[in-house]
Hints:
This protein has helices at residues 2-32, 56-59, 62-69, 81-89, 101-109, 125-129, 165-174, 180-183, 227-241, 259-278, 294-298, 308-316, 352-361, 363-377, 384-428; strands at residues 44-48, 74-78, 95-97, 115-118, 135-138, 159-162, 184-186, 207-212, 244-248, 285-286, 301-304, 320-323, 343-344. The protein is α/β, with parallel strands linked by helices. Strands 3-2-1-4-5-6-7 form a 7-stranded parallel sheet, sandwiched between helices. Strands 10-9-8-11-12-13 form a 6-stranded parallel sheet, with helices on both faces. The longest helix is centred in the last third of the chain and has 45 residues, at 384-428.
Amino acid sequence: MGAVKDVKKAYRLLRKAVRSRMAVQRVRRTLEAMPPHPEQHYKIAVYFADGAVNMYQMRQWYRPLAELDKLWPVVVLARNPIGAEKLIAEDAPPVAFVPTVRDLERFIRDQDIRIVLYVNQNTRNFQMFRYGRRWHVFINHGESDKMYMTTNQYKAYDYALVAGQAARDRLSRTLWDYDVDHRTIEIGRPQADHFSGTLPYTPDERTVVLYAPTWEGDRPSAHYGSISTHGETLVGALLASGSHRVIYRPHPRSGVVDDEYGAAHRRIIAAIAAANSADPRAQHVYDDGPELGWQLASADVAIVDISAMVYDRLAAGKPLMITRPVDERASVDTGGYLSDCEWLSADAVADVVREAERVRGDEDAIMRLRMWVQRYFGDTTPGVATAKFHAAIAQLMGEWDEWQIREMGAIKSGEDDDDEEDKDEQLHG
């Protein structure tokens, strides 16, 4: 039995290696047919070492980065061939494919990169940290109260761009000897200025409910996913009401660890398809597309797990409920919004229709929501977050100039000292 498993594992690894090599060849051919990157052109790099499964972390930054590129040229440093292929095919900034350290070194040498942005905590980030004389800045791929948001890995970066005061408070509570005031810069949620996409349904009298669960997690402390504990009952009740439209947007990794979680996910998709077949006017939506924005803006109520989607929706300032994890080992930070949110427990999920109507009309719930929006994101007036993002980059560019001037002054001072020593030797030699 063990030998059979070893053979299967070896076969999977071989297939993975073959797919990767073929992807490398495709990417190189594609880039060879494109104009070369101008030398000494890019000022900002976005480092991305992941493949297709984590593309959602980059996609939400495409439009904010496109705006930033108008001020300072931006390039994506793609390490994974599958990820690079996706980036090239999508609406990403220009892509430099640097699968090896040698490729990375060569590209860095030929560019004027002053700021490197990171959207996640991939361990290969450390291969980029070796390069000094530039700022390494964590921008993350969302705002949440997950334990991921307070990892000690923040200390590896020169700076972190965070959403608001709530993020600073969270880091202050958790990290020892971390200068939050100096090393974090508030920018709000610039992605919210670029919510996009076309509604895949025709609005009518139905109440639109967004159900956006996260994946099952890879350890007990991260067991936030609700598809198998809440999802089927929740979606079933909304589909059966006749007065609701469901937008089901699960995390793209749903089911990668737990087969039953994946099976529940597929049953929900099948239930949505069956409901639409029975009543085409219902126009329920299974959404697995790259666009994020129309879902958050159009839904009358959102039901989400503990994830970045909580705060994406919070930035929209509209009613939402959070599924309470069934696993008691799941780490829940109740020092922020989750201490005052509208929880939906597995026991209460059968009453989701009534609960959805309650949060829409409860004035106290609406006032609390507004207060937390301000605490997490500050001013959510369209355009303000983008301005903060640009100001943060401008600040770092200014600091880069100051260090460069200081370094050049030190070099000049050293040269002057050498000249004086030479003159002294000539006079007294």
